[in-house]
Structures are given as structure tokens and as C-alpha cells.
Amino acid sequence: MNPLAHAGARCALSVNVNKVALLRNTRHLGIPSVLRAAEQCLLAGAQGITVHPRPDARHIRASDVDDLAAFLKDWPQAEFNIEGNPTQNLMDFVRRHRPHQVTFVPDSEDQFTSDHGWTLPQDAERLKPLIQEAQDLGVRVSLFMDPNPAAMAAVAELGAERIELYTETFASAFGTERQDAVLAGFTATAEAALKVGLGLNAGHDLNRDNLSLFLRHVPGVQEASIGHALIADALELGYAETVRAYLRVIATAYA
Ligand SMILES: CC(=O)[C@@H](O)[C@H](O)COP(=O)(O)O
Ligand SMILES: NCC(=O)COP(=O)(O)O
């Protein structure tokens, strides 16, 4: 156990509602409702809502982002996090809505799902003005990054406030003989990020089984954005019970 894991405040849960929209989009009936999903998750104690409006609008559409931005004005404590590639459609949403946080993700237009972080310093020049623009609009910038301690100084140099650790490699190693070695890479990256003054988020394929181990070992995680597994759980348990279950997992990681 890394003692630094307990140094900061408890990790916030931001529910990614992409998959609610994905199901909704298979009919023209407006159900299940993305807004009602967000409301139920917040009522159950989630601290934020995340969306990833992809250029092909396969799940979250521009109108969902507009509706959520308006809805969240009545939830001043809730964080709105919009993810996407700032060289595609993302900056339009940032300019229009000025969410609390934007997460830059280097996905291609037809990416199946996010599967890697930015490469620095190669991506630095095109990211720099976009980071600056978002920050000038009052939006915190987080860069989606693979676990690589050596890259953290370059992120700090670019001026982003946070990174989001891409956690799929941890999720797929969870419960295998690779788990501890993979986790050590995330811990080392988090320590390097904290050392250069970066904040820390995490996401991708986190779930009720693997989340606690991650939070107990990786120091300083401020926000976990969870979508696919949480919405799948909600189909079986309901939103409120599911969000409470995840919040219990987070609480026990700090007990
Ligand atoms: C950025 C990230 O980690 C992703 O998990 C993403 O938001 C999920 O996208 P899909 O829901 O389209 O797979
Ligand atoms: N940033 C990660 C996210 O929002 C949700 O990822 P997943 O839980 O759907 O894999």
C-alpha cells in the first residue's frame, strides 16, 4: 500500500452517461433519458457527469451536451466534464458551454473506444494553443495519458492542470499475475504527476471490482469517470443503488 494514497481528499465519482445515449439512439422515442440518468446519479451522490460527444454522434449528441449544460446549472456542486479530441469537435462544446473540466483525448474520428493517451512532446505544439484557449474560457484542462512517469514533466510544461490516467491496462491486468507490476506503473506515474504539481483523474474500464485496489494504491486520484461498467450495473441494480455501491467502494478505499 502506498501511504500517499491517503494524502489527498477522497476521489470524486463522475458518471459517464455515453451508454445511456447509445441505447436511446436505437429508437426515436427519447428513452432512456440521458437527463434523467444524470439526475438520478447526482441525487444518489455522484459528484459529476461526464460525456464524450464523438464526431459520429454514435451516443452523446450535441443536443445532449446542450441539455446537460442547461440542466447542470441547477446543480452548482456537480462537475461537468466533457471529453474528446480538441482537434475535432470538442472545442465547439467548450466555447459554447464552458464546462468545469475538459479532457483532451487523442481519438481518431471513428475510434471504437479510447485506447491510448497523448504522446509528448510530439503532440505538444498542437495542444498548447487549445489548452490556452480552454483555460482562457475558465475551463480546467485534463490530458488523457498512458501511465508513463517520464511524460509528466512535459504535461506540466504544457500548462494542463490535470491528467486522466487511461486505466484500461490496469483493468485488463486486474486479477492476473501482471496486476501488481501494472499497478506499480500507475503509482509511479501518479507520484511523478503530483511531484510536478498536476492533479490526477482516472478512467476507462474501472468497475466495482477493480476500483478499490486502484484507489488504495494510486495516490492523489481526484476524480474517477466511470461509464460502461456503471451503466451496465445500473441496468441490473438501478441508478441509485449502483451509484451508492460505487461511493461505498470509494469510501472503503480510504477507510
Ligand atoms: C476517454 C475515455 O476514457 C473513454 O472511456 C470514453 O469516454 C469512453 O468512450 P466510449 O463510451 O465511446 O467507449
Ligand atoms: N474517462 C473515462 C470515462 O469517462 C468512462 O470510461 P468507461 O468507464 O466507459 O470505460
What does this structure look like?
- The chain is α/β, with parallel strands linked by helices and 255 residues long.
- It has a single domain (12-253), classed as Aldolase class I (TIM Barrel).
- 44% of the residues lie in helices and 16% in strands.
- The protein is built from 11 helices and 8 strands.
- The protein has helices spanning 18-24, 34-43, 62-72, 90-97, 124-136, 152-158, 168-173, 179-195, 211-217, 228-237, 239-253, and strands at 12-16, 48-51, 79-84, 101-104, 140-145, 162-166, 199-203, 221-226.
- An 8-stranded parallel β-barrel has the order 1-2-3-4-5-6-7-8, surrounded by 7 helices.
- Helix 5 (124-136) links the parallel strand 4 (101-104) and strand 5 (140-145).
- Helix 10 (228-237) packs across helix 11 (239-253).
- The longest helix has 17 residues, at 179-195.
- It is globular, with a radius of gyration of 17 Å.
- Mean pLDDT is 96; it is low at 1-7.
- Ligand LD2JLWAY binds next to strand 8 and helix 10.
What is the CA-based Rg, rounded? 17 Å
Intertermini distance: 13 Å
Question: What is the CATH topology assignment?
Answer: TIM Barrel
Fourth CATH level, the homologous superfamily: Aldolase class I
The count of strands amounts to: 8
Task: Give me the side-by-side strand order of the main sheet.
Answer: 1-2-3-4-5-6-7-8
Number of domains: 1
> Structural class from helices and strands?
alpha/beta
Instruction: Please report the number of helical segments.
Output: 11
- What's the helix-strand series? EHHEHEHEHEHEHHEHEHH
Low-confidence stretches: 1-7
Average pLDDT score = 96
